[in-house]
Design goal:
single chain; 395 residues; DNA polymerase, domain 1; hpI Integrase, Chain A; 3-stranded antiparallel β-sheet; 16 helices; 52% helix; elongated
Length: 395
């Protein structure tokens, strides 16, 4: 921005300061400012002094500079001077259209419950002033609060995304998150059931309200949202296939069904396993019978969903997680998470010689690295084969 200049002029026997301002295209425009002094020789020196003061203010004070900014420049300046605690929620609302509803709700929870309170406590920390030091302090806080490394990395990724937007908009010159230390995560090794344990689980939960949910998760290694999102229309009994293309999630708005899956690879079509077909047909018959018996008392809203309760209401995700823990304790079974049924499915596939690439496709992972990182530690059969090969070679 050009340095502001000006001169004195006399009008109606009064001294005025005429300020030369410039727009973003460099075009000059004059601004007249009264000095409240009579135009005589005795006041000229005082008028010159006041002119210098005005010019100094224009050339040093950001507020004066912003008077002559374009709309875009003013917006960048506004964001730069925002407190970080205010910027993050505002950024999320602008970013909402770029993510799924589930992702948005997850981001919102992180920002409102963790980030806003922390950065608010930092005082008047502005977007233009934040550095890697403050962000590292945030990581220390959430780790001290008990958040695991993987979760802390999600916070890191969210902050990086938020300040990347500020860099792209030319609010700040560089991303302060890149000056911080990315939280380290220890690899999570999930528990899993072997064949005997899985069979025992399925046998002991035959009459449980979420048996069908457990059964489908065990056989197909589906995520919780994928199991609950399965519809009868996704099962092709003629061509013997099951399509995974819908999910059910739970947020502050309640239970929501959506066709937007976690990744592109999550959309997949799997063979209809004979045992699964048998259970599904029995479940369909049971639901139709309950509908006939209960008539108006049966909920018709979710008739296309497979995983519903006795009165036709969809089974809620949070209920599955909570009830699964209760079931395992009541039946005297090894405690695992519901998601560990997915790990159990993968471990059985590995133990029976199914290649890692095929397991990736079965589980709907977006890349081989994800599958290998999670399940390489349970690939015991391939390790045994390797041991036998080297033993035979050097025998």
């Amino acid at each position: 921005m050009k340095r502001i200049t000006g001169h004195l002029t006399e009008k109606n026997k009064k001294w005025y300061a005429v300020i030369n301002l410039y727009d973003t295209d460099g075009k000059r425009k004059e601004k007249w400012q009264g000095l409240n002094l009579d135009a005589n020789k005795g006041n000229k020196r005082e008028a010159e002094h006041r002119l210098r003061q005005i010019l100094d203010q224009y050339n040093t004070d950001d507020l004066y500079k912003r008077e002559n900014m374009s709309h875009a420049d003013k917006e960048r300046s506004r964001v730069a001077h925002m407190q970080v605690a205010d910027y993050l929620p505002e950024w999320l609302e602008s970013h909402k259209v770029n993510v799924s509803e589930t992702t948005y709700e997850g981001y919102k929870l992180m920002i409102q419950s963790r980030m806003v309170p922390f950065f608010r406590a930092c005082g008047d920390l502005k977007v233009k002033d934040i550095t890697g030091d403050e962000i590292n302090d945030y990581y220390v806080r959430i780790r001290n609060d008990g958040l695991k490394g993987t979760t802390a990395q999600r916070h890191h990724a969210l902050l990086h995304l938020a300040f990347k937007s500020a860099v792209k908009r030319r609010v700040i010159p560089s991303n302060p998150v890149e000056q911080a230390d990315r939280p380290k995560a220890q690899q999570y090794i999930g528990k899993y059931y072997n064949t005997t344990e899985l069979k025992e689980l399925l046998d002991k939960t035959v009459n449980d309200p979420i048996h069908i949910v457990i059964f489908l998760a065990a056989y197909y290694g589906l995520r919780r949202s994928e199991v609950l999102g399965l519809k009868w229309s996704a099962v092709d009994f003629e061509n013997k296939t099951v399509s995974i293309s819908h999910k059910v999630v739970q947020n502050d708005k309640g239970v929501v069904g959506m066709d937007v899956m976690k990744t592109k690879s999550s959309y997949r079509t799997l063979p209809l396993i004979p045992q699964v077909e048998e259970v599904l047909l029995a479940e369909k018959e049971k639901q139709e019978e309950m509908m006939r018996v209960m008539r108006r008392g049966y909920c018709k809203k979710y008739t296309d969903y497979i995983c519903v309760d006795a009165i036709g209401e969809i089974i809620k995700p949070n209920y599955v997680t909570d009830h699964f823990k209760v079931v395992l304790k009541e039946k005297g079974l090894k405690p695992v998470r519901f998601h560990d049924l997915r790990h159990s499915c993968a471990s059985l596939l590995l133990a029976n010689g199914v290649p890692m690439k095929m397991i990736q496709d079965w589980l709907g992972h977006s890349d081989m690295g994800t599958t290998a990182n999670i399940y390489s530690h349970i690939d015991s059969e391939s390790k045994k084969a390797s041991a036998m090969a080297i033993g035979s070679a050097l025998g």
